[in-house]
């Protein structure tokens, strides 16, 4: 199941019950950084995160947060988690795309070096596809190939 390029909010149902409960949100954002090393990656660089609160609240202070590359961000898409453990979902997505993780060191506002771990160099359609595969359970049969920038079958 692939998600449309419109990347609309989608229900991620990990275990269907009559009493579905929202357990979090997967969000995908792009950086609005003016740093030349980051801005040159626009269109390829996305942060994939999970929050148990609202995405708006999560990204509100992005410009002061090393997790967000010390810059404002623009939300690209969100997915509602139902009946899913947000930590496990985030860990699974990050492991799936681990080879495409951005390797960068920044200084926080106190000068402390930080290595953000939630930014990936991946085409957006591949992120959408991976989340669709997570929804239908087929993600375990695939891996992300950094050489082709595509999800391929194991």
Description:
This protein has four helices and nine strands. It starts with 10 loop residues before the first strand and ends with a strand. The N terminus is likely disordered.
Secondary-structure topology with pairs:
Blueprint: E1 11-13, E2 22-31, H1 36-39, E3 45-51, H2 55-59, E4 73-82, H3 86-96, E5 106-107, E6 113-114, E7 119-121, H4 124-136, E8 142-145, E9 150-153
Parallel strand pairs: 1-4
Antiparallel strand pairs: 2-3, 2-4, 3-7, 5-6, 8-9
Helix/sheet category: alpha+beta
| β-strand amount | 25-35%
Largest sheet: 5 strands, mixed
- What's the end-to-end separation, in Å? 17 Å
The SSE order reads: EEHEHEHEEEHEE
- Enumerate the strands of the largest sheet in spatial order, edge to edge or round the barrel: 1-4-2-3-7
Count of domains: 1
Rounded to the nearest angstrom, the radius of gyration is 15 Å
In the predicted model, the low-confidence regions spanning at least 5 consecutive residues are 1-6
